[in-house]
Task: inverse folding
């Protein structure tokens, strides 16, 4: 057996060390505003896990569950539970997703703590929460209303006006003024003739029937319908049931702004991709664990519009979508 020289052995050892994956030892606590089964949350988790698990970072997750339990009392309580989880875990970075996690948890630490925070999925203005700060950075969520309407106009050029229809949720409270400003300033490719925010399912049905009979309205832009109630202060109607009723009861196209819209039957959407949000937040957290301060990591906004068509709906409504659009889509639901 030949002996390996000390020089060769040293070289082999050096190669082994330098070629091995570089893991960032650290701990991240993810505080979700919503529940684990929500499709948006699953997308966020997918994006974060792609980065954090590959980096060898320990991750624990806490779900505030404020979509299914929407009372202010619960939001305050679950925000305190998130604090208790953080203090027990002592993570290097806390990732907070969506606005409720900021409003009822993270904002209390902005600029007032050595704990490093990364936010994601934030629809509100960041200064509302004291972001960014020396210990806070993250990625803002901005819906693609202009791109969605531009997509609709590209294959249905006869549409000159839409009605905006959204639930009375806190999220819709945040995005509606922004889209209203775009409409007022002429920054949307199709005019928005009315902004409607009904609460109960019967009210939704009334609004849909009204505009279905209005010849000036060519389509419905429906970003959010997750908090529609059976009656005032009553139980919520399953969102899929809401969208399916709307699609079945109007011949006008319905477009959305999030993936669940097309999953439930909307014709098309240019959506905010939750995987992008999760991935960017994970990358920011990894940078902080490797030595950066959150305040030194530049705040971002989503950039990757994700085009979805629901072909089943298109066929049912007799809508012809050009092949080149379908070919360039990110997802087609059949």
Result:
């Amino acid at each position: 057996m030949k002996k390996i020289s000390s020089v060769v052995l040293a070289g082999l050892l050096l190669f082994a060390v330098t070629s091995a994956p570089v893991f960032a030892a650290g701990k991240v606590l993810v505080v979700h505003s919503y529940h684990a089964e929500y499709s948006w949350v699953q997308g966020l988790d997918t994006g974060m896990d792609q980065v954090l698990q590959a980096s060898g970072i320990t991750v624990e997750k806490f779900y505030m569950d404020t979509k299914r339990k929407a009372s202010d009392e619960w939001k305050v309580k679950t925000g305190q539970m998130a604090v208790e989880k953080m203090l027990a875990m002592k993570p290097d970075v806390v990732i907070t997703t969506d606005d409720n996690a900021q409003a009822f948890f993270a904002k209390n630490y902005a600029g007032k703590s050595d704990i490093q925070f990364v936010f994601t999925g934030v629809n509100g203005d960041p200064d509302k929460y004291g972001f960014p700060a020396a210990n806070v950075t993250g990625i803002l969520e901005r819906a693609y209303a202009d791109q969605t309407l531009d997509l609709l106009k590209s294959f249905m050029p006869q549409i000159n006006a839409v009605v905006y229809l959204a639930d009375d949720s806190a999220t819709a409270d945040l995005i509606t003024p922004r889209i209203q400003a775009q409409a007022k300033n002429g920054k949307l490719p199709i005019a928005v003739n009315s902004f409607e925010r009904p609460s109960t399912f019967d009210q939704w049905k009334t609004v849909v029937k009204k505009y279905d009979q209005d010849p000036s309205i060519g389509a419905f832009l429906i970003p959010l319908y997750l908090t529609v109630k059976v009656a005032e202060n009553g139980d919520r109607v399953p969102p899929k049931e809401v969208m399916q009723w709307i699609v079945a009861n109007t011949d006008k196209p319905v477009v959305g702004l999030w993936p669940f819209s097309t999953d439930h039957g909307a014709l098309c959407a240019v959506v905010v991709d939750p995987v992008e949000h999760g991935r960017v937040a994970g990358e920011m957290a990894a940078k902080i664990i490797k030595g950066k301060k959150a305040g030194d990591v530049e705040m971002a906004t989503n950039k990757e519009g994700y085009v979805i068509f629901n072909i089943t709906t298109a066929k049912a409504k007799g809508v012809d979508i050009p092949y080149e659009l379908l070919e360039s889509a990110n997802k087609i639901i059949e």
In short: The domain at 145-257 is CATH 3.40.50.2300 (Rossmann fold). The mean pLDDT is 92. The chain has two domains: 24-141+274-303, 145-257.
